[in-house]
């Protein structure tokens, strides 16, 4: 009864609120912008890996390892002239693209077809984050350190611009025909754009005057408690539990991971910049990043279900085996919705405990290993759907990280195993009951022939 009451509470009160948050315009825009920029994170990360060998070969003894890393260093020296600019203009300038992406997807949401909303979002971010206290351009906040400024600035700039435009405040109408539409739009928006940029300039000036720091530094200080909460063993464990509890009730994980993404990417870009500056991978500033979540926590998808998918492939239940065979390949790439809906895992009381708690277990173990310096921290983003052991290697350049992920897959399977066997026995019993019922119907119904004409003909020939 208590479980039914809790389920009713979630379905009646929590689920509508969570789905409303997931459908909120700015949350969806942030998700779209970050998903669109995955190629930039991936390309920039690979460029950084190539030009930054993880080991100084000069400190190694003679042997294969020294020869391998000496060769890697030679490749890095040869390619850095071409690859370093790629890193600098992808991951190193990610805030610029985030501001543009937010402007683009907000304009798309409001069916605005001109380029001006994107330009306004970019310009607002530039005024707030790319100008120092003396009025000169600076690149200090072009990368991940300006990410929160890009989000706040581009959203506020766009919304103010849209409000002024919708109310036709200061609208300038060009009379006469034959005027190009682009000119009509730009002149008509002259006053709204002026108000937006002037407002951003005043905010930037006041921040510098009152705090002796630029606006991005103020935003960073304000967000520091949230970032610190996320980058802690208890913070990430509680987030994992909340995500999976909502998933069990059918509320997609993007309700939490969507708003969480800016913090994870902020930590990742900070690690990337520190690694590029020469900081050792075990001493990077943050543990919890985007690849930490998808590579070390959600192995096989939300709920860390890769081990479960492998067990399903070899199940004695026809239904479970079919689902396993259909979902094992997507699960390797962290896509497990077919498994979640196929078994199902949602509203499944038998599999609830491992589904909700396994990912939190992975989070705690990985955090403790990385925090203790036993495994390198992540600094590259091989993308969320990279096969986990490969992703572990690419994101940390540490073979111990690969061993950790493989070990977690085994332990995850062991956590699921006793619950899976109970669920499997239930399914087998259900399938046997259905088969017996079908046989009884066939035996008692004279209208259903037990043999076909083809069977009779073959018997006569024999």
* Helicity, as a percent range: over 70%
Mean pLDDT: 86
Annotation, overall tally of beta strands:
0
Q: What is the CA–CA distance across the termini?
A: 63 Å
Treating each run of at least 4 consecutive H or I residues as one helix, how many helices? 20
Gross geometry = globular
Q: Kindly provide the radius of gyration, computed on alpha-carbon positions and rounded to a whole number of angstroms.
A: 28 Å
Could you say which structural class the secondary elements and strand pairing correspond to?
A: mainly alpha
What characterizes the major β-sheet? Answer: none
Poorly predicted runs: 452-462
Strand residue percentage:
under 5%
Number of domains: 3
What series of H and E elements makes up the topology? HHHHHHHHHHHHHHHHHHHH
Commentary on this structure:
It is a single chain. With 462 residues, the protein is an all-alpha fold. Helix 18 runs antiparallel to helix 19. The longest helix has 46 residues. The C terminus is likely disordered. It folds into three domains: 54 residues, no CATH class; 112 residues, no CATH class; 208 residues, no CATH class. It is 71% helix and 0% strand. It is globular and about 85 Å long.
